[in-house]
Amino acid sequence: MTYPAYPAFPGPPHPGTLPPGLTVELVTDEDAFAALAPQWRRLYGRCAAATPFQSHAWLLSWWRSYGSAGRLRLVLAREGRELVAAAPLMSVRSPVPALVPLGGAISDYGDVLLDDERSPDAEAALTAGLAALARTALVDLREVRPGAAAERLYARWRGPRYRLADSLCLELPALPMDGLVARLPSAKARQRVRAQLRRLDALGVKSRPVLPDEADAAVRRLLDLHRLQWRGRKVTGEHLRPRFREHLARAVAPMVRTGDAVVTEFRMADEVVAVDVTLLSHRLAGGYLYGAHPRLRERRADVAVMLLDACAEYARAPGRSTLSLLRGDEPYKHHWRPERVPNQRLLMARRRTAPLLAAVLADAAARRRGKELLRRRAERKEHDGGGG
After folding, report:
1. If exposure means fewest CB atoms within 10 Å of the residue's CB, which of 126, 299, 304, 328 is most exposed?
2. Over the stretch 256-310, which tens digit does the pLDDT of each residue have?
3. In 67-107, which ranges are continuous DSSP H helix?
């Protein structure tokens, strides 16, 4: 069994826990992670549940912008030299020692990769590798989408475990724009969207997916427009930081080449007035981030309709069933009557690390109580103010 003796690994899985012919290894070196790209890409292609946030380009770029030296933990299972499973993780020490997915807060879905052609052996091998790491740390998988590969590891786990609700995502079926308009709740709403589509045509707004060689420059233009559109308003601060700018440009260009992303430019009178990044996987398309010039809104163009019209086209590939609006419960998304699909947080421990699990559950319960108290206080304040 191949198992490098990294100091961070407390010991290999018991040989009896690994299916015949499979080995498990731990990678903690960034250069070794980079060298995995071809094998990772093949495994990603054989994991139907994978989302774009598990692609090698996204994860490696994220690590280079956000990772901390000495914290990388890639648990890999192989059959011969070929990858059949991978858990892209990093170690954290606060609030408890834990293993968390690469991708962090800027990734809408966290997961592992499992070769569908080698299950259940791939599941058993990766579970054994994670169980070995869990001797000293809690396994804390955040933002797990229902149906994700990580659910299969959770089902196999023999130690203490717990499932919590995580962020809410909103999803639409992968329909053409006409089909999405037909889902709207009233004739008036349908007429309004059709009028907006006609207005975009009248304004001469044209869209095109950029070529792979243009993707880097287009993403940087997107971020410039994103900063401009939110000037003077509340915005996600991370999107304005240099590390995010470098991550997105570095990740998206190779993802465009491999078909895991598409960057769309919107032009009006030969000027780029908006740029959008849509991420793609086997089963879903999701609009990740866009930037739009304020001139579009000044001309009374509905930017949300414009973006959804383009994204709906990308969601219609064979096998792709979901147009994801990703995380967030913003009111404008609800106009389209999406399905509410909450992500999950999967917590897995060993008997010796069960106190870490208990501590995280207590913290999560306290946070829920705090949010509920703030919500009730806001409701009372609104009621008292209205009554006055």
Report:
1. 328
2. 999 999 999 999 988 999 999 999 999 999 999 999 999 999 999 999 999 999 9
3. none
